[in-house]
Specification:
The complex is a heterooctamer, with two copies of chain A (about 250 residues), two copies of chain B (about 350 residues), two copies of chain C (about 70 residues) and two copies of chain D (about 180 residues).
Chain A (H helix, E strand, L loop, with lengths): L1 E4 L18 H15 L5 E5 L14 E4 L5 H11 L4 E7 H7 L1 H10 L4 E6 L29 H4 L5 H5 L5 E8 L3 H19 L4 E7 L3 H4 L3 H15 L3 E4 L4
Helix pairs in contact in A: 1-7, 3-4
Chain C lengths: L3 E3 L9 H5 L5 E3 L11 E3 L10 H5 L5 E5 L6
Antiparallel strand pairs in C: 1-4, 2-3
Chain D lengths: L1 E9 L4 H14 L3 E6 L9 E9 L13 E4 L2 H7 L8 E5 L13 E5 L1 H8 L5 H12 L5 H12 L4 H16 L3
Parallel strand pairs in D: 1-4, 4-5, 5-6
Antiparallel strand pairs in D: 1-3, 2-3
Helix pairs in contact in D: 1-5, 3-4, 3-6, 4-6, 5-6
The chains are: A alpha/beta (about 250), B alpha/beta (about 350), C alpha+beta (about 70), D alpha/beta (about 180).
The complex binds thiamine diphosphate (2 copies), iron/sulfur cluster (SF4) (6 copies) and magnesium ion (2 copies).
């Protein structure tokens, strides 16, 4: 028998704490596959966010640091400046990156720090129980937008992939999803590209994942996938916003 | 002996850090310590290091966290409001047991306050500006020479105890120039080995840097382990200077700039045969309670002099209890007491006691 | 050796794989794993074409997928 | 013994430099010294001053409320620091920019038209150095040779002629006391 | 009498704030206090108020600053790491003398720590997490009822003294449900007049809100004025509860959740005729030193119980000096002591003393 | 005699602390003129930054608050939410707004807070003595970029006017200069527009001023103006980036 | 007198609701009460539990290390809390999910096949309420009428049939002790 | 009444107005104001056309500018 697909080597053999059907696990695996395929396990260092993915350090056979909420890009900068030849990546949620950590991600991006950022947009704060995120859709009900996000009060959802593409220091910015095999395979390419750019010393790369949160959206897993396909993708079009050429 | 050089405090601290093997500096401008990042921006590239101006104090302390986790000797400097923005990070660094050196060149507060010298961040530095049960070693240098020496020591102790070390100075010390003899530059290859550093998990188990443990029983254990370390520091690292204490019947306690100004006051008083002495804490945490306790029997009263509305005075009271009166003379808001002011306060309080 | 290695203990019964399997050869078991989930099971070994869709969509890395080599057929 | 010296004037009159030169001189002569600037809001526009302590004892207080010497380069400085001067101390006044006479009688007062002398030395901005020269004449805090060398280092980046002019200003100041 | 309602602590604090006339809430989610912003997001629009989730704790406290400067009753709530991010703003608010109410529903630290109940931000809240000489009134509620009452009082005192007031509770109190009777809702038109508020300088001199004064002499004066206000607060606002202290020969000092747990321990010990009593500080700043000093003569020893590695114990030692032993029982990292634990500790320490 | 130009009424009759030739004063006056012309003195509230303009409160007959460094947009939000009918503006430097305050300005802009922001881009930190700002030009020497700003280390200068135009909540974003009567008169229109938008309840408006700092640039006033004309305008093109129509 | 009751089981078995219903009942009967959840990491997936104190005395400690009653809905809960129970206390066990017998002999033990009884009442998820009914039978902490009314309020948002089923479960629990 | 009101005390001698004046009727005075600056002065009242450029460019709000009404001419 030939192995077609096997659990990535860089992943620990461990049960994750994520809710049933949560896409965080898929994004993890895509990162792992990229690391495996690029053969960089021994020189990759990860920065965990504060969010549901805070436990990511538990699932990878990699050195990891758990940075304060939102500050992963600054922490990553500190590591990368000491070890320019290591591969350093942050994995951040939309509360972490787009709310409290806005200044840090923008400045790291603008500096063109040679980093890779995996950004999980699940339109809410998963870990703390489903509050509004900067990426929450208009009209979406969350525990802190109980009447639905109102453009007058809270403004429009943030488009991170587009925003990032404005900065000259950013060499790659893409938005992907993981709701079916096709999108997952496309995501995989994006993640790999984002790591390869770093290996080639090109600068800052970011991949935004449209991700689900069945638990806090109050949906079944299937419903959550439909929400991504029908609602999120409309607000947040998939695609490569920068660095897709070649 | 090396050459004596005239150095501004805030530049001396930078050069001393470089001598101690510090090659990474992340910081954000704020008066009265701008010359430190400025100096570093010039010097670090010359020695193969990296200077990066963080986009804020918040970012800077988190960059420090990254560099420290990577095993480097790293430093940041700031002044009062900037330190406030760092306390979340400092709590993390302490919990993660990551070594680093942070200088707070204090200025008048609260809020924006002003840029004049002050000592009103004593509580913040010694009792935990951040959340949770953590402690930082806090030095209170009083001369540029001492600032240099303590900077080097700060890096060593930070590594030894895997703990942040705070240099708590003020704008006066920062802005003054004094001759110093710089220490020999350490060879980077002689710096302590850091097997815990995040270097990429090549051929070893992975290393994790985090201040995080969901299970209370385990987090409690971590806390007790930290406390044990703090107890060891208390046992081994308390430092202070005594000045005319031998036969003193009246002790002034003051640190940093007010400490050295008090020295002049003590000298003047001694010339008048007034039996005063000075205890100048060098480590503000761990605080030198012991020497004060020892002095109680021989002393009629204590006076604490601070460039604040009264913070260290609490620690002196903790040591002295009600056994002796503890007077206080403070100048908050950026004022610097003169030796004359202090002499007068001593005489005033002595007269209260029928000295 | 089966075409699928299934880590039943890791399965959270989200059904993503069940829905995506082109040949509908996956289902949730009646058994319960130690986390209280009815884990996935391969209902029909022969029906599995080793396409790997199940691996691709599974958030919990439950599967490894193998294919019969030509020589084995 | 240590000397405590306050130098005060407008920002731009070189009072901080005056003090630094003293401290560099002290360094050269292996004395103890501290140079301490008032770096507060006075800096922009208003009055600037610094305190220099130097001598053969380790410096305790870097500031002084009863200095041995006060050098004033403008009127507000005279108003502020004349009262501080220790009894018997030396008050050095830049007459060119001071409009009134000092009032105290328990001190030694030396008034100089420093601006004119500086011009004479070929450098309008060297009033401070003129006063410095006179200070050295009045009190044996540092040797002329030392200070002259310091001037060379201090002003070298502004070219030889500036160095020369300042050395000349120093000399003129010294000689004004002969 | 109004109806008794079963309320979760972190929701009760929100409803109590609304009853006190708070119509503005700016905050950022963090466990274990998420229900407060959630509740506010639902309720405030119903009463014509505004809930806005700040992009961070830093932004939130500065939004609070704006709303407070505009004269509104305004609140934010957070938990430990979030509070650390607010201390710069709190130092400013204190210097500006802007009233506001800030709840810190403490969790295990340092760093990210965990989400379990803790009391390890005592130092931060009472001794100045931020820079400069400032003080906040700090309440340590122990029941949901008290949390409600103190929330209302917090708004009143904040306005009265033009000062931030901190509600220092922990996750246990925040997450528990207890019956409370809500106070009458104040009429907004009866709230104190604020002539200093920024409302637009129409027909009056302009108003300025700032914590800024370049001239040290003036900033010193401002500081002494603040200190005078703090002295007045110390004189007028110290609050505590005594429990079986009348004839106690052994006093336990504990606040908040550990305070009420200690009550059960005291009850149990009293049943065994052990003469213990409890002093439960309600204001942590100003700290009730006085009552402890008063109790010294009748008491053999003190025990401080905290859900931390030992912070309030310093204040107790300040009060007691060396006149009596001060024991400590602490559970850091999110652990909650049980009455049994405390009983045992009392007995242990008593045996040391040959009670 | 007819009055052609007179000191704006809303300004205090006071000497400013700014250095000789510093453009901060011109920007102040333009704000004052807009307030005078719109007749909103009695209902305007200002937020001072931390930077050279921290003393702005001293020069206007307006209620003012001095917000912590970079946080003016958050403080302004707090005021505006209490008083939607007042006119609230922030006046911020490039260190204040684009460095430490990046998260706050972006979130206020994205929420479409009905505010006006005057943004002074002088390519360095004036108040603290000329350190590098996010807007410092490539190659520009500052006290913390003594070898010149290096794109590899510090990235490209930030383009705030352009960045702001990305957010739906922003109704007006313009970049202006004040180096001659023509640019000043154009700036005046921009400032007025930015206030009028607020009066009309439209949302967030920002005017970026290319400003000088002769003191820290180490230039004469004339040289500083040439620097703006020859260097800054090239990197930061003047213009209305959003909301210019009509 | 106050009762201290710990209810423990898997998240999803309704242990927090069990406790809240008790507290709401206490409220209705004008008793003192505190409901305190273990809200830590146990919440997600693992074991959840809460402590309810209720009675006629003001509640001091909201937690208990020697409760009067322990209700366990799964095996880990039995392991954890059986030792805590006060001597003479009541241990209420959901036999359906508990694999071993309780070990202590100094307590009163009541075992119920709560799942079967809940199904019988028409609501699989009402095991918790079955146990609650039995608790009321064993100890006079609250009246059946009170709790029945509380159930109505508590479940009303899930429709009348759920309310009815839960009331039936309560009754079955009670009757199992007759 | 002059076409220009000049607040000499506020002038910082930056020369911006001097450079911009279309008729070159502004100059810096020999006098010194209390801040140590040589303040601006109107060298030639008649040459001033009340264009206001000086007002427009002055960072220190030194000027008010007036124009002779037709009737005054
Ligand atoms: C300073 C600080 N503020 C708040 C929190 C609480 N907190 C933890 S995770 C989180 C947000 C998580 O949301 P997101 O980043 O979107 O990640 P997700 O869980 O959705 O993947 C928050 C606010 C914290 N730990 N620290
Ligand atoms: C938290 C904090 N960090 C740093 C400072 C010091 N500081 C004062 S002004 C300033 C920057 C000013 O630059 P900018 O915003 O560009 O204004 P400019 O002076 O150039 O107009 C800094 C860093 C401070 N006051 N507070
Ligand atoms: S809470 Fe949401 S984001 Fe977090 S693990 Fe569960 S489903 Fe995923
Ligand atoms: S490999 Fe393909 S066919 Fe086989 S079980 Fe998985 S999805 Fe179904
Ligand atoms: S996708 Fe994975 S977790 Fe979900 S049911 Fe299939 S095997 Fe189980
Ligand atoms: S330092 Fe620069 S920005 Fe500040 S007032 Fe002077 S010239 Fe203007
Ligand atoms: S108004 Fe015009 S012409 Fe007259 S002085 Fe001013 S710039 Fe010159
Ligand atoms: S522009 Fe104004 S400040 Fe400058 S010289 Fe002219 S009047 Fe004076
Ligand atoms: Mg999220
Ligand atoms: Mg600037």
């Amino acid at each position: 028998m030939k192995t077609i697909y096997a659990r990535p080597v860089v992943m620990e053999d461990k049960l994750t704490h994520y809710c049933s059907g949560c896409h965080h696990g898929i994004s993890h695996r895509l990162v792992a596959e990229a690391i495996d395929e690029l053969g960089i396990q021994g020189r990759t260092i990860g920065i965990a966010p504060i969010g549901c993915a805070v436990f990511i350090y538990d699932y990878f056979k990699l050195d990891f640091i758990v940075a304060p909420h939102g500050r992963a890009p600054a922490t990553a900068t500190g590591i990368k400046r000491v070890f320019p030849d290591r591969v350093v990546f942050t994995y951040q949620g939309d509360g972490d990156l787009a709310s409290i950590g806005m200044a840090e991600i923008i400045h790291a991006a603008n500096r063109g720090e040679n980093l890779t950022t995996i950004f999980i947009n699940n339109a809410n704060y998963g870990m703390t129980g489903g509050q509004m995120a900067p990426t929450t859709l208009l009209g979406q009900h969350t525990t802190t937008s109980p009447y639905g996000r109102d453009v007058k009060r809270e403004g429009h959802p943030f488009h991170i992939a587009e925003l990032m593409s404005n900065f000259k220091g950013v060499v790659y910015s893409a938005r992907v999803a993981t709701y079916d095999p096709k999108t997952i395979l496309a995501s995989k390419k994006a993640v790999k590209k984002a790591f390869m750019n770093q290996l080639e010393g090109k600068g800052f790369s970011i991949v935004e994942f449209l991700s689900n949160c069945p638990t806090n959206w109050g949906m079944s897993v299937v419903e959550s996938i439909n929400f991504i396909k029908e609602k999120m993708v409309v607000e947040f079009p998939l695609g490569v916003y920068k660095g897709g050429e070649e | 002996m090396s050459e004596r050089i005239l150095f501004k405090g805030v530049e001396a601290v930078a050069e001393a850090a470089i001598k101690a093997g510090c090659r990474y500096f992340f910081g954000y401008p704020i008066t009265p310590q701008n010359e430190t990042p400025e100096y570093m921006s010039k010097r670090l590239p010359q020695v193969g290091g990296v200077f990066l101006q963080g986009e804020s104090e918040t970012a800077s302390i988190n960059m420090v966290m990254g560099a420290s986790a990577a095993g480097a000797r790293v430093m940041t400097t700031t002044s009062s409001p900037g330190f406030s923005l760092m306390v979340e990070g400092i709590s993390y660094l302490s919990g993660m047991e990551l070594p680093c050196v942070i200088a707070n060149i204090m200025r008048g507060g609260p809020g924006l306050g002003n840029i004049a010298p002050a000592q009103s961040d004593y509580f913040q530095a010694t009792k935990g500006g951040g959340h949770g049960d953590y402690r930082n070693i806090v030095f209170g240098p009083s001369t540029v020479k001492e600032l240099v020496d303590l900077t080097v020591l700060a890096f060593d102790l930070a590594d030894k105890y895997r703990n942040p070390v705070v240099l708590l100075a003020d704008g006066a010390l920062g802005q003054m120039m004094e001759p110093v003899v710089l220490p020999e530059e350490v060879k980077l290859e002689n710096l302590p080995n850091k097997p815990w550093a995040l270097t990429g998990a090549l051929g070893r188990e992975k290393n994790l840097a985090m201040a995080f443990e969901m299970v209370p029983e385990k987090l409690e254990e971590i806390n007790w382990r930290l406390q044990k370390k703090y107890d060891q520091i208390i046992k081994e690292e308390v430092r202070w200077e005594e000045y005319y204490t031998d036969d003193a019947e009246y002790i002034i306690v003051a640190f940093g700039t007010s400490g050295r100004i008090t020295k002049s006051a003590v000298k003047a008083l001694r010339e008048e045969k007034v039996p005063v002495g000075l205890v100048r804490p060098i480590t503000l945490w761990p605080f030198p309670y012991g020497i004060l306790v020892e002095l109680v029997p021989q002393v009629e009263a204590f006076l604490v002099v601070e460039m604040s509305a009264g913070q260290m005075v609490e620690d002196v009271r903790l040591a002295v209890g009600d056994r002796r009166p503890v007077f206080f003379y403070g100048r908050p808001g950026g004022m610097v007491p003169t030796p004359k002011d202090i002499v007068q306060k001593v005489k005033e309080t002595m007269s209260l006691l029928d000295f | 050796m089966s075409k699928l290695k299934i880590r039943e203990e890791y399965c959270k019964a989200c059904s993503l794989c069940v829905e995506v399997c082109p040949n509908s050869v996956l289902g949730l078991s009646k058994d319960i794993n130690s986390r209280g989930y009815h884990p996935v099971e391969l209902l029909n070994e022969d029906g599995c074409i080793s396409c790997g869709f199940c691996y691709i969509v599974c958030p919990d890395m439950v599967f490894d997928v193998y294919k019969q080599e030509k020589s084995e057929e | 013994m240590n000397y405590e010296i306050i130098i005060s004037g407008f920002g731009g009159q070189g009072v901080l430099a005056f003090g630094q030169i003293l401290s560099y001189g002290a360094l050269k002569e292996e004395k103890y010294t501290t140079w301490f600037p008032a770096y507060g809001p006075e800096q922009r526009g208003g009055t600037a001053y610094c305190t220099v302590v130097l001598g053969d004892e380790e410096v305790a207080s870097p500031i002084s409320s009863d200095p041995d010497v006060v050098v004033v380069l403008n009127q507000p400085s005279l108003d502020k620091f004349e009262p501080w001067l220790k009894k018997g101390g030396l008050l050095l006044v830049n007459k060119s920019l001071v409009t009134r006479k000092p009032e105290r009688e328990d001190i030694k007062i030396v008034e100089l038209d420093a601006l004119t002398m500086a011009r004479q030395a070929g450098e309008e901005r060297a009033s401070n150095i003129v006063l410095l020269g006179r200070l050295l004449k009045e009190l044996p805090i540092l040797s002329m040779t030392t200070v002259s060398e310091i001037l060379k280092e201090f002003f070298s980046h502004r070219g030889e002629s500036v160095v020369k002019a300042n050395q000349e200003a120093l000399k003129l100041g010294w000689e004004s006391g002969e």
